[in-house]
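W.,

You were right to be curious about this one. When I first looked at the sequence I had no strong expectations either way, so I just let the prediction run and decided to look at it fresh. Below is the sequence, 286 residues in total, followed by the output.
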Amino acid sequence: MNIYPIETGNFKLDGGAMFGVVPKVLWERTNPSDDRNLIDLSMRCLLIEDGERLILIDTGVGNKQSDKFFSYYYLFGGFSLDTSLAKHGFHRDDITDIFLTHLHFDHCGGSIQWNNDKTFYEPAFKNAKFWSNKDHWKWATEPNAREKASFLKENINPMEESGQLNFVDIPKNSFSETSPLGFGILFADGHTDKQMIPHIKHQGKTIVFMADLLPTTGHIPLPYVIGYDTRPLLTLDEKEIFLNKAADEEFYLFLEHDAYSELCTVQHTEKGVRLKDTFKFNEIFN
């Protein structure tokens, strides 16, 4: 098995929205903001090469939205999904599976693209299966008013219409040891219903793709919960359980939205679980 970080682009969001009730004087220590109160974020995905399967976890925001839409999120930098895949010798047509942690636009928007004439939407990965779960799919296709702006029909409906949509089974408890993708999945409900957090065994270590359960290293303290979460008190409980396990079992946490760090580890302290170290992916995994 080989694993590669895939940089799809950077964007900016309001720092207050990303840290909820935490005062700016505290969160700005780890996530500095500009004069508009915006902080830098990444849309970092993960590519798993496992035998004949090439699995991409999340796809970034894509490029099909309007200029007005993108103006709200201040995309910047030179990264793109295609150039990042090419860096490792791959093309999007090589991808066999797209695993979507959840269906907010910054996680799944790259899954669907315009056709050549811009007359209809089509899968951006013509040879891939798309993987979600039935509960989250229902949540996303019948959105509540709070999340409606994040669940965009043009990102979601074409997956089902293409016939490429598949669902993983939801376990009776919150963790599935196995899945059709070959890795374990933690199901978390605080951010959005049935967000899926992959746990990948590699080179004797566990890599956890954190999605929005832990967007950046600045979100490690328990009260540092993003304002977009639908059930913030549940996020507190989910984070506490997960972070204690991550410290106990020395997980490597892969950070989708941290603009500065690809991986981190955590440790127990007198103040609770806190950051231990940060790494570039290739410093730990060859």
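Here's what jumped out at me. The chain has a mean pLDDT of 96. And, maybe more interesting for your project: The two ends are 11 Å apart (CA to CA).

Coffee later to discuss?

I.
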